[in-house]
DNA sequence: TGATTATCTGGTAACGTTATCAGATTTGAG
DNA sequence: CTCAAATCTGATAACGTTACCAGATAATCA
């Protein structure tokens, strides 16, 4: 094309105020540049952070995101998956791990590239996932607590359904305990739904048990902060009376006093990776990986003290 | 249509695994059922909550949302607005109040229904908006502080550009002060960007001023919590040494000790209303209103004490 | 049974783009 | 000035729907 013609065309675009119609373009090209994202609950700090990193990575690659906030409602999840399919999205990211038969069947017959972000699909569903090693992460932190002299270690877990992050984290807790020859006190193990209030309520029961734990390990920062609030509401001190460790290393760890020591998940990397893999699949390449496991680490702040 | 024919068709849909193609449908119907949302920063509690209410209201009306997270980057905002136009979204919700010439011009010539949510457009842009009366809200809370005997009232404001929420809230602060015959101490007035760290940093400067304020009023909960952390990091106590009041009444008010008293914004209503008005416009009705002003109230928790 | 209405069938055009191709026109090299 | 290559022009089909219409068939009422 000659440069002068290009100018004339550009002038015409200006004059006529022409804006291309992506819908028509998509219809013929069969490419929408849309990524559908299913999120458990975007008003939560973990998911809203992850979502913002997904958005960032997507927009850098000229993809736009359609968000489906399902608030743990499986019907809404299925509905969104169907809508995504009708809308011909190029790919789907799922940040939710529960599944029912309908969703499972839908996903099995779905040809749209899909990746699980900070969640794993049932084994019958063949989608790549991006996670940390939850079991190892949990094991590592409990082992660290033990190395600090703790023996009375309470656990605030998450949903413990098979193959869920909640299950893995619980397994890691158990493994570290049995390995150290510490018997599990059932009074000190409770499961919530990752929310702040769950942590508060569960901590309440711990505080009523005969003997107090020396440390409580919560499987989300929100629950850890709930526990923290419960503790200070009972005029006890963290970490002097009870130590506290969270999970995720979300921003809430720094908004609270004492600052919360927490198991760090590389959220940015998780979001970015999910998008990268998805785009590879969209472009017809093999994802290259089935399960991406990113590395974790414990970041120490001020809510955990040594007993030695 | 006869019911038996309906059955046959439904059977065929099942057998062929037919899924309608919304893209093709949209092309002919000129309706995408898409709402584009521009958000300042979705990883922030205020915006992620509002967004989740917007999503809820939209999905109840069979609309899907496309989110553009601009992180206060005006170029990205313009880019998203253009993309929204190309994608033929049915409507746009803007949760951001800064504007430059490009955006202003774009919006002036845009025919897509648009509403501002918790933000107001420049007067040259004719879009409805949903807000509280920021000036009145700020005025009311400062007046309340005064009625509690406070005279040394510090202010952590937001961006103070014309017609912005930050400006209105500052005006309310000033009005209440002059009305009570209290002179404004410039050492006790600082402006941040609504983030926690801003509150922390600004509080630091207050703590270094000759005389300490008896209360600080921050124009977002995040900044208030930042201030709170700064205060406790200096071994001072809230509200014994310094009282604290936030703005928004977001969930952070309850995640922090002492619980933060804060000016309540009806976030759910704001999100819902924005969507309702937008949908009215999309359906060709007049929005009915130009500026919706919802009511606010101060919700008292434990960070404010009376001096009387 | 015949007239009237309800329902079905199949065909066509349109939405705004992209891909492709044939033919016309311009450009550059020798 | 000629010929090949580069560039332009205009036309056509396709993407998967919906709207519309004419004509055929079936159901309903008198």
Structure description:
The structure is a homodimer of 308-residue chains. With 308 residues, the first copy, chain A, is α/β, with parallel strands linked by helices. Chain A has two domains: 3-132 and 267-294, Rossmann fold (3-Layer(aba) Sandwich); 134-265, Rossmann fold, CATH 3.40.50.2300. In chain A, 42% of the residues lie in helices and 18% in strands. Chain A has helices at residues 3-16, 22-29, 45-60, 74-86, 101-108, 134-147, 165-179, 196-208, 221-233, 267-282, and strands at 34-39, 64-69, 91-95, 114-117, 129-132, 153-157, 189-191, 215-218, 243-248, 261-264, 291-294, 297-299. In chain A, the strands form two sheets. In chain A, strands 2-1-3-4-5-11 form a six-stranded parallel β-sheet, sandwiched between helices. Chain A has a six-stranded mixed β-sheet with strand order 7-6-8-9-10-12, sandwiched between helices. In chain A, helix 6 (134-147) runs parallel beside helix 7 (165-179) and helix 8 crosses helix 9. The longest helix of chain A is centred in the N-terminal third of the chain and has 16 residues, at 45-60. The N and C termini of chain A lie far apart (77 Å). The relative contact order of chain A is 0.13. Chains A and B meet through helix 2, helix 3, strand 2, helix 4 and helix 9 of A and helix 2, helix 3, strand 2, helix 4 and helix 9 of B. Chain A binds a DNA duplex (30 and 30 nucleotides) through residues 1-2, 5, 20-30.
């Amino acid at each position: 094309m000659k440069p002068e013609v290009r100018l004339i065309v550009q002038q015409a675009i200006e004059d006529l105020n022409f804006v291309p119609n992506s819908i028509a373009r998509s219809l013929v090209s069969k490419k929408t540049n849309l990524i559908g994202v299913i999120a458990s609950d975007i008003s939560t700090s973990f998911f809203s952070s992850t979502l913002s990193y997904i958005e960032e990575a997507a927009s850098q690659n000229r993809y736009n995101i359609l968000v489906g906030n399902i608030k743990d409602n499986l019907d809404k999840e299925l509905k969104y998956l169907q809508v995504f399919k009708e809308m011909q999205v190029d790919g789907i990211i799922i940040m939710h791990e529960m599944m029912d038969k309908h969703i499972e069947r839908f996903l099995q017959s779905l040809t749209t590239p899909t990746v699980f972000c900070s969640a794993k699909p049932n084994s019958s569903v063949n989608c790549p996932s991006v996670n940390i090693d939850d079991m190892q992460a949990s094991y590592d932190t409990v082992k660290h607590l033990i190395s600090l002299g703790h023996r009375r270690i309470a656990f605030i877990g998450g949903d413990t359904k098979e193959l869920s992050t909640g299950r893995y984290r619980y397994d890691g807790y158990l493994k570290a305990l049995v390995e150290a020859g510490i018997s599990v006190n059932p009074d000190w193990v409770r499961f919530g739904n990752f929310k702040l209030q769950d942590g508060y309520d569960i901590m309440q029961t711990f505080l009523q048990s005969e003997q107090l734990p020396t440390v409580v390990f919560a499987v989300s920062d929100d629950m850890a902060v709930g526990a923290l609030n419960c503790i200070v509401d009972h005029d006890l001190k963290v970490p002097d009376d009870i130590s506290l460790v969270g999970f995720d290393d979300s921003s809430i760890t720094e908004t609270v006093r004492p600052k919360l020591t927490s198991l760090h998940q590389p959220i940015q990397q998780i979001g970015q990776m999910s998008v990268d893999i998805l785009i590879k699949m969209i472009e017809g390449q093999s994802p290259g990986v089935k399960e991406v496991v990113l590395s974790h680490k414990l970041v120490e702040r001020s809510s955990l003290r040594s007993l030695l």
